[in-house]
Amino acid sequence: MMMDAAEFRERLLGIVGEAWFEQPCALHDFLANYLTPESVKVYAMEHCVFAASFPRWLANVAGNCPHLEVRQYLIENMYVEEVRDPTEPIGHYESMVRFAVAVGLDDAWVRAYQGYLITRLTTSYWDHASRTKPWLEAFAAAAGLEIKANRALLKRYGREPQSAQYRKRFKTLGLPDSALVHFHQAEAADPVEGGHGEMPVNILVKYATTAEQQEAVLRSLRESIQVNHFHWDAIGKRAIEVARGAPVFATA
Questions:
Q1: Model confidence band, residue 184 (pLDDT cutoffs 50, 70, 90)
Q2: CA-based angle 41:141:93, to the nearest 5?
Q3: CA distance 64 to 53
Q4: Residue 252 reports pLDDT greater than 80
């Protein structure tokens, strides 16, 4: 039986809350207890790979989507990711590279880096999902990642936006504000009304018009958030190992 809009919205938020907020990944332990000048490099390296890949997944979805309204949202999102953010005149990938360089990584090396094994595996998942799933399920898998910044979810779990947490923690390393632009951008774009944490939910509610579509969207979203949790849990554990003395540059 098809759910009404309110029930379906609640199911969408519930999946993200359960998979992400109720089962904290090791990345949060790293940020709270193991943040060092060396361990932060692990996060920066892998997040740069993710940031370089994310807009390509959105582009895959846009290429298969028949609805102008949705394509406009995806293209706007890609523009701030790749070209220019309205709050800071630099794209999100470039601002993430700036952060990586500020923590001691080489610019050219970061741009050429392909990711730790877990990052390569998980980014391959999103590339495949965004290319091969029907557009609505692909949208849930790719754009649905940003539901973690949904205002209602943050309020429900008593959390501040993830980007704000990161900015505050990384500030303790003595980094200048110019190195933390990426996190300022995310704070401005994601958890606000009509932002990237809210719009994917609105679009999924609007365009999942049958019970079958709703169930397919819920499966796709759940799987994607679980993969995201798996990814950042592994990277958090890797960063903790580095904080305890392991080398930054692993062979895997």
A1: confident
A2: 35
A3: 18
A4: no
| Main-chain phi, psi angles of 191, to 5 degrees | -90, 5
Task: Report CA 243 to chain centroid distance, whole Å.
Answer: 24
> What number of CA atoms fall less than 13 Å from residue 3's CA on the CB side?
20
CA distance 97 to 105: 9
Burial of 73 (0-12, 13-18, 19+ CB in 10 A): buried
- pLDDT at residue 193 above 90? no
pLDDT at 4 over 60: yes
Provide the residue ranges of all domains of the chain, joining segments of one domain with +.
15-243
Q: Tokens at residue 53, please?
A: 């890949």
| 64 burial via Cβ count (<10 Å: 0-12, 13-18, 19+) | middle
Sign of CA dihedral 76, 81, 82, 86: positive
Confidence category of residue 194, pLDDT binned at 50, 70, 90: low
**Domain 15-243 class?**
mainly alpha
pLDDT bin (cut points 50, 70, 90) of residue 251 is low
In 34-45, which positions are buried (b, 16+ CB within 10 angstroms) versus exposed (e)? bbeebbbbbbbb
